[in-house]
Predict the structure.
Amino acid sequence: MSRIGNIFLIWRKGPGSRRIPVGVIKRNSIDGTRFEYIKKNIEEANNQGFIPYTGFPDITKSYTNNVLEIFSQRLVKSERNDLSAFFEFWRIDSSKRNDSYYMLAHTQGILPIDNFEFLADFNPRKGLNFITEIAGLTKSKIPSQQLKVGDILDYKLEIDNPQDKYAVKLYKDNLELGYVKLIHSKVFHRAKGKLKVTVHHLERNGIIQRAFIEVIL
């Protein structure tokens, strides 16, 4: 079993809004790579202003041609001056840099020009290592001094959470920080407490604006 399962196309209206899984990318050795929209979630997204992804305009269709070619346009370009730092930040395996599926899963394909991101459903295999971000910090308003890079975080599986049965709340000691991102949280439930979570990178301005964490099995 690969460490990377399906990759979900996530959309939200803007920072602080709820993330909605609007599509899924699946890859296997027999059928290749396929993309299709998650129709049960599209209505909620439409009510908030969602527009289908460029290149995949028909929400009823299952796409099998040029799926990775289209989505890989979001990936880092080889001419970037800070390429080595980028790879180090996202903990990229140097042997997988030409694997678009791997790169999309690990770097999340985030661009400043739209509200899409790509979140992989990781599998709890030995050697798993990925970077994600704490969700809900806009509500938590954690003072800057409360966290530092390298801090080891605790977590709790919220199996009774009515909004997300895979919710995972993060803590520093007894301080509630926020949640593991949607989709990324699933592996925590399957790993049965074996994951280590550390603070990887912080952006602060009086309070913690963004907090990236490293997840290791």
About this structure: The helical segments are 39-46, 67-71, 83-89, 100-107, 137-140, 186-191. The first strand starts at residue 4 and ends at 11. Residues 4-122 form one domain.
